[in-house]
Each structure stands twice: as structure tokens, then as C-alpha cells.
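Researcher: Go.
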Amino acid sequence: MEWYAVFGLVIFGLLALMLLGLPVAFAFLLVNLIAAYVLLGGMIGVEQLITNTAASLMSFTLVPIALFMIMGEVMFRSRIAIDLMDAVDKWFGRLRGRLAFMAVGGGVLFSTLTGNSMGSTALLGSSLVPEMEKRGYAKPMSLGPILGSAGLAIMIPPSSLAVILGVIAKLSIAQILIAIILPGLVMAVIYAAYIWGRCWLQPHLAPPFEVEPVPVAEKLRTTAINIFPLGIIVFSVVGLILLGIATPTEAAAMGAVTTLALAALRGRLTARVFGDSIFSASNISAMVLLIVSGAVGFTQLLTFTGATWGMIDFVMALDVSPDVLILIMIGSVIALGTFMGPLPIMLITLPIYVPVVIELGYNPIWFGVLFLIAIETGATSPPFGAALFVMKAVAPKNTTMGDIYRAAVPFVICDLLAIAVVFAFPQIVTWPLSLM
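Model: Structure:
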């Protein structure tokens, strides 16, 4: 069977099963088993596929996923997130649009807590939007900054989605975790610049309000108590990897231990907090690993049947600039993100795109960073981006989907600008890697 027939049948089967409502993980597993039986010699092919998939799931590269989940759950349930918000609040003072800037600052800091944009959207939306509306903020300046900055959760370590990308694309986990740091900060700067410019041009969107002055000594004390320990946790993950002291798995374990120690020092690591955190992290990790198993089998299936190499040969024969091909791939990820979740997109596209990127001579880590930004852009893009519906669930009752769409569009444009910056200046990704 020709490669394009194999590719078409597999993709069509996946989409059909997902449209019927079958969970993503089971859709991939079912298609993998049927295709292996039909295309790889019956039960021998199925047994080989199962053996290879099981072996890949025993890899230590997957352990950081569970450890990052434990970090986030412990920090949520021990209420460290609330302490962080209080500390950030004291630094913004009477700055115009201060609550919008708090959303961006919270997005950067809470990336350490959640590791996913949906969690950050829910957390920031439920805590900040009511206060913003009470202070007279217009919806473009109350909803938009949260939708944009929540996406920073997957662009600043520890990021579970970055680890999953590394596993599926067979990239270095350590390199992808370090590579996303500067692009994530670039996105935060673009958001902050937009908020400042919009508040300057249209001050009525974020009216000023009186804030009780906070002495510098109090700001420094709050920072030392609530933000500095978070810096220690981040260093225990990112710093150890960057310095070459620990592997990603070892660094993730160190981060989890440091997080538990911080919660214990504050007297908040009760038996219930610990038990609930481990139980919730285990549930999420099991779901993610089930999905990853489907992705691994899918990748092997495409390779064994020759579909991957057929696709590469087809793309290399096209009379199109390699840069244009990269932009088409990124554009397709954004388009898929408007109606699909991040994991299905990664499972379907990465096994096809990454070999093509490598064949074209591009750095696959650089492409992986662009891929993550594109996924986040799609998640906040109207009409069906997942983050938009999370925001609808936590926003005040008088908020319509039209309000959310109008608030999201400027930040989607900011994301596209970030993609353009990283595309034009790959050194933003490669320079930190050279320091490792």
C-alpha cells in the first residue's frame, strides 16, 4: 500500500473516532492496534507494536511529568499561589493598569505552579477578573491579559507539555526546558508593552484607583518570604539542568522535594494536602502516559509502514522555500488549536513534522519552541479555543462569549508577534542552549 493511502486511512480513522466522542488516548490505541494487525503482518505486528510501546513507557524521561504534577498540586493545595499574588500586588502600587500587569506577572510566576494554560486561566480568571470589574476595568483589559498571560504556563519551566513534546518528538528534555525560557519572557514583555500602550491610549479601559502605599521594607519582606523561595524551587529544576549538575528527571525530583519542604516549613503540608496532591497528580499522570503510549505507537506505525519517509520525500520535492514550509506547519498547528486540545495536536502532527524539519536542516528544538507558542495561540483563538471556554466558566455571569472573543484577539496578535520574533531570531532559543 502506498504511503499516502496508509497516512490517509490512519488520520481519517483517528479523526472519525474522536468525532464520535472516543477519548483521545483510546482513539490512538484502537487505530494503532487495527493498523498494526492489517499492515504489519497480523498478530506478529501487534505484538511488536505492544512490546516497543511498553519499552518506551519505561523510560526515565517520562518521570518528570509526574514530578511536575506533584509540584503543582502541592503548591496549589498549600495556598502558596495566594501568597504569591499578594507579594506581586505590593510591587505594582499605583501603576495604571496595575491589575492587568498583575495578570502578566501572575502568569509568569504561576507557570511554576500549574504547568498548563488551562489551570492558569482558571486560577487567574477566578481571582483577578471580579476584582478588575469591581475597579471599573473594561472587559478587554480584564479578560484579555489573563487569556494571554495564562499561556506562559507552558513556556516557562517546569512545563509538562514541553516534556511531552520532547518525548513524542524524541528531543532532549533538558534542552527543550531551557530553550523555552527566553521565548516565554519575550511573550511576557510583549504582553506588558501592549497593556501599557493600550492603557496610555485609552485610559478609560483601566481607570486608576487609590492604593494604600506599601513601605519598601514591607515589599522586600514579602518578596523574601513569598517569592524568593519560589526562586529556589525554579533553580532546583532549571538551574541544575543548565549547570549540568542533574538530568531533567533528577532536577524534577529535586524540585518536588523542595516544594514539599517549602510547604512543610510553612506548616501547610498536612496529611490531607499531601494525600490529595499525590492522588490528583497520579490521576493526571496516568492519563498523560496513556496518551503518550498512543503517540509512541502511532509514530512507530508511521515509520514501519514507510509513511513517514514517504511524507518526507513528498515535502522535499515541493518547489517551496523551507521557511515557507515551516510557517505552513506552524499555521496548521494554530488552526488545529482553535478546535483541538494540545495533546491531540502533538500526537497527530509531531511524528510527521519533526522528521521533515530535521531533513530541511533546521534545529528541531527551535521548531519545538515555535510549536509550543503556536499551540498556545490556537488555544486562545476564537471561536473554539479551549482557553476561551475556561474563561467563560470562571468569568462573571454578565460576560458573553463575544466579550471574550474581543478581549482575546489583541493577545492572539501578540502571540503571532512572538512567533515572528522567535522565527526571525533563532538565537533566542539557541543561545541559552550554548550555555548548558
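Model: The two ends are 45 Å apart (CA to CA).
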